[in-house]
Amino acid sequence: MTDTIKAESAEALVGERLEQLLGGYDPSVEPQEFWGNQYDLGLAWVQFPEGFGGLGVSPKYQSVVQGALEKAGAPTWNRELNLLGIGMGAGVLAAHGTDAQKVKWLRPMFTTEDMWCQLFSEPGAGSDLANLSAKAVRDGDEWIVNGQKVWTTLAHIAKWGMIPVRTDPDVPKHAGITYFIVDMKAEGVEVRPLYQITGEAEFNEVFFTDVRVPDEYRIDEVGAGWRVSMTTLMNERVAIGSRALPRGGGSMEAAIKAWKDYGHADPAARDELVQLWAGWEALRLTTLRANQMRKAGTPGPEGSTGKLAWADLNKAITAFTVDLMGWDGTLYPGGYVLHRPTEFESEGSPQRNFLRARANSIEGGTSEIMKNIVGERVLGLPGEPRVDKDLPWKEVPRG
Ligand SMILES: Cc1cc2nc3c(=O)[nH]c(=O)nc-3n(C[C@H](O)[C@H](O)[C@H](O)COP(=O)(O)OP(=O)(O)OC[C@H]3O[C@@H](n4cnc5c(N)ncnc54)[C@H](O)[C@@H]3O)c2cc1C
Fold first, then answer.
1. What is the location of CATH 1.10.540.10 in the chain?
2. Shortest-distance Cα residue to atom 31 of ligand 1
3. CATH number of the 116-225 domain
4. Which residues contact 122 (CB under 8 A, 6 or more apart)?
5. Which of 19, 80, 236, 281 is catalytic?
6. Ligand 1 center from residue 135 Cα (angstroms)
7. Is 236 a catalytic residue?
8. Of the CATH numbers 3.90.960.10, 1.10.10.1100, 1.20.140.10, 2.30.40.10, which one belongs to the domain with range 229-378?
9. Residue 302 above 80 pLDDT?
10. Pairing verdict, β 116-118 and 160-166
């Protein structure tokens, strides 16, 4: 079945499955059990084929599912719990995984039983990801991985990690990469915390020393890792930039609350609030429209526009909010406690959100890189000079 399925029959199918999932919904059911049922009924990612958490219908029906779950008071927050898996890993497996890999990883990912992380950035490769140095060498039916990754969100609780590594240093940088799923609990994987300005060690540095990865955990062909990495990043930008928030929700809600609580009458501040509100609302409506128009398959470069706009606005709104709070905005409620989150903390106090939002224009690709992508791949402007594109990777100068 594909998304060419007729609209009326797709709607009827989704409605029927929702009835099976929610008819007589029992709120005492454990969330993981509920999500397992949701997956088995094809309502996890409706655009995926039947048997893999979907129904083979247009992805626009996912918002129908989401709305019905919210209305019924059913658990809906699994994406936040396992953002790297559900927001990115699932798209990678759908586009490049074998059926056996989908069966192994998709269901426990969706139920959040298995958490996932993304092992892309390295000390010497961030924006220029294709320059990565962590390597894998084949040994029979296994690969031996060595190297270091950094800024790995939730690596300390992840069971599985998505990792592109260099398998051929003799060819140009984009061609010598292979993509694996690695068991984060395997021997030789060491995860160390990195603390952020919020006091949270949400991310980590990860060291790989002779870690053995079975060849069956390889995603796509040997040397096709760049293609798979692009699928991951396109999904990531959509996952970050396309959250369907309610009107005036998210960081805007905190700004409006601060406006009311701190009784501002300053016309310049009111002007700024209204401008931010209008920008946030335009982004919300654009996101809703993009979600409605989204076709099944890997998202394209246009996902970068949402990510770019969201990062700038979220930073501006959270900064405006702490400004409204005056001296209160400088205090960290509950004290500044260093801790290690066990889930992705998307919301907190306005002060914490202000600090956390500084990362929005870096994580998932920096705003400068988003502008390059939009310029080159959406607007068709001339590309940046890339002098090392055709050089064998081992000859590319590295710091
Ligand atoms: C909160 C947070 C969570 C993260 N989680 C993860 C994760 O889970 N997994 C993971 O792999 N990584 C993660 N990252 C890392 C993130 O993807 C990288 O930090 C990001 O891609 C930038 O890479 P870099 O830090 O090496 O900076 P660099 O690439 O060294 O960039 C430094 C500066 O140069 C600019 N620059 C670089 N190249 C260009 C260019 N061609 N044109 C214009 N400007 C350019 C950049 O915009 C930036 O301002 C996370 C980062 C943050 C902040």
1. 7-110
2. 127
3. 2.40.110.10
4. 132, 133, 134, 147, 148, 149, 150
5. 236
6. 20
7. yes
8. 1.20.140.10
9. no
10. parallel
Range(s) of the chain covered by CATH 2.40.110.10: 116-225
List, chain by chain if needed, residues with CB within 6 Å of any ligand 1 atom: 117-121, 126-127, 151-153, 203, 359, 362-363, 365-366, 368-369, 372, 384
Q: How far is the CA of 233 from the centre of ligand 1 (A)?
A: 12
Centre of ligand 1 from the C-alpha of residue 111, in Å: 30
Q: Side chain identity at 79, as an amino acid letter?
A: R
Give residue 178's pLDDT.
98
Q: If you take atom 27 of ligand 1, which residue's CA is the nearest one?
A: 126
Please state, in angstroms and rounded to a whole number, the distance separating the CA atoms of residues 109 and 368.
32
Q: Token match 């199918």: residue? A: 13
Instruction: Please name which of 59, 68, 52 lies closest in space to residue 19, comparing C-alpha atoms.
Output: 68
- What digits encode the pLDDT tens for the residues 71-121? 999 998 888 889 999 999 999 999 999 999 999 999 999 999 999 999 999
Output the pTM of the full model: 0.93
**Residue 94 in tokens:** 């759908």
Write down the CATH superfamily of domain 7-110.
Acyl-CoA dehydrogenase/oxidase, N-terminal domain (1.10.540.10)
pLDDT at 3: 45
How far, in Å, from the CA of 361 to the mean position of ligand 1? 9
